[in-house]
């Protein structure tokens, strides 16, 4: 580099660097929710068992549409085969209005089943 370029670089003040404090992450209590999808039922049963083994007293299973039957199967398998003293705490059903890719609106059924020891 030429001397002029070096002098210009020396004269330019460096941009100020501000010390930024790390952002505090709002600690949200771990949600003990299992969302049901297309996987085999046993995968969801194992997810529920993991929550119970980590000390949770309640687990909520949520599903929409065709996955509702898989959610019910998950709870029944969990109650009958794995956790004998498991009781139903709450069952909520509902409908969500969704817009399809074609622009049509359709209703999708939902279910939330809460079980606990």
Describe the structure in your own words.
The chain has 117 residues and is an alpha+beta fold. The chain has one domain (30-116): Translation Initiation Factor IF3 (2-Layer Sandwich), CATH 3.30.110. Helix content is 32%, strand content 30%. The chain has 3 helices and 4 strands, in the order αβαβαββ. A 4-stranded mixed β-sheet has the order 1-2-4-3. A hairpin with a 5-residue loop joins strand 3 and strand 4. Helix 2 packs across helix 3. It is globular, with a radius of gyration of 26 Å. The chain starts with a helix and ends with a strand. The mean pLDDT is 83.
What string, H for helix and E for strand, traces the elements in order? Answer: HEHEHEE
Unreliable stretches covering 5 or more consecutive residues: none
Q: CATH fold name, please?
A: Translation Initiation Factor IF3
For the secondary structure, the number of strands is 4
Order of the strands making up the biggest sheet = 1-2-4-3
Shape type = globular
* Classification by helices and strands: alpha+beta
Number of helices: 3
């Amino acid at each position: 580099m030429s001397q002029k370029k070096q002098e210009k670089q020396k004269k330019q003040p460096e941009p100020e660097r501000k010390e930024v404090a790390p952002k505090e992450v709002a600690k949200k209590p771990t949600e003990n929710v299992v969302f049901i999808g297309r996987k085999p039922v046993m995968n969801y049963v194992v997810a529920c068992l993991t929550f119970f083994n980590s000390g949770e007293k309640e687990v909520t299973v949520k599903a929409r549409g065709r996955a509702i039957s898989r959610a019910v199967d998950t709870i029944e398998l969990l109650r009958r085969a794995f956790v004998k003293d498991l009781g139903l705490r709450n069952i909520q059903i509902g409908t969500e209005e969704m817009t399809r890719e074609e622009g049509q609106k359709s209703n999708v059924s939902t279910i939330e089943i809460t079980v606990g020891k």
